[in-house]
Description:
Elements: E1 4-7, E2 16-19, H1 25-36, H2 42-49, H3 54-66, E3 85-93, H4 98-106, E4 111-117, E5 122-129, H5 132-143, E6 149-156, H6 178-182
Antiparallel strand pairs: 1-2, 3-5, 3-6, 4-5
Helix pairs in contact: 2-3
Amino acid sequence: MRPKSSPTGVGERYREVSVGFELDAVDRQIIVLLQEDGRMSASEISRRIGGLTDRAVRNRIDRLVRSGVVYIGAIVNAAALGLPVTSDVIVEVAPWKLKEVALSLSDFREVGYLAVGPRTGQLSLQVHAGDECEVHSFVRNVVARQDGIVRITTVVTPDVVKGLTGFPQQPFSARRSIDARRSL
Length: 184
């Protein structure tokens, strides 16, 4: 049976991703190794995992990429480009302006991430800047001036505990699940 597919929204890397894709222990090991080094060769992954040929590793990586489970590409370090301050900005937008505002804000180089919550009428942005004054200037002079803005909440995030490449950093078996946290 083919997994169901779901559209990913505005500006995503994939038009469709598999929903309910099953990962086995080997897939998980491959993902962890690729998070360590996205350019790691199939032969090196094969050597570290053991019991798999290079071709088998390449086939698994291809399957993970095709299914949308992983994306292999470059992640830009905004701090290295002179934008060391990162802020999370939640923007509440009038529903009829949501897509227009999202597309407009996604064009700015300061915006590293933008997600749309259509049911809540909210945008979640990650804004990169040279300092806190630049963040506030961007929010005041760019974000707040968009037509349809209802409310803006900005949080400067000086210490990122878990970033973009943080899912999962450690093997899945060592991670606590949502269900395990609920029992605490």
